[in-house]
Amino acid sequence: MREELDDAVRPFVDAVVAQVARPLGVRDVPASAEARVRAVVANLIARASDPTPAARVPAELLVADLVLLAAFFQNVDLLYDGGYAHADAVSMLVMHALELLDRTG
Fold first, then answer.
1. Cα three-residue angle 56-16-23, rounded to 5 degrees
2. Residue 54 carries which DSSP code?
3. Engineering a disulfide at 69: which of 3, 8, 40, 62 sits with its beta carbon 3.0 to 4.6 angstroms away?
4. 8-state DSSP, 28
5. What does the alpha-carbon distance between residue 34 and residue 31 come to, in Å, rounded to a whole number?
């Protein structure tokens, strides 16, 4: 899957995977854990970037995984730095998730 990623999104995905699959203090992480997180992140990015309503990512998916939401929030600037064409869509997904989290407490 790594080679399928757009060069503009790869730094974001790598950073999110590093934070989610390899938390601080954990030395040995199975490659399968990184692959799973990479697949989840790539799927969320692809769906958030797809303009069709059926493909849109429900923000609830990020709200359900607060570590993933935090990693998305902390690294979204990498999408802009890389010139990712759909950085705004991913940012809106993150903002909507934060709004939902705020509402649900």
1. 135
2. G
3. 62
4. -
5. 5
Measured distance CA(17)–CA(38) in Å, rounded:
6
- Report d(CA 18, CA 85) in Å as an integer: 23
d(Cα 10, Cα 18) in Å, to the nearest integer?
12
Q: Where are the alpha helices (DSSP H) in 7-86?
A: 10-21, 31-49, 60-63, 66-75, 77-81
d(CA 79, CA 9) in angstroms, rounded, equals: 6
pLDDT of the chain, 105 residues: tens digit per residue: 444 678 999 999 999 999 999 877 777 888 888 999 999 999 999 888 888 877 777 788 899 999 999 999 999 999 999 999 999 999 999 999 999 999 886
How far, in Å, CA of 77 to CA of 74, rounded? Answer: 8
Task: Tokens 């699959």: give the residue.
Answer: 21
Hey, what amino acid is at 10? R
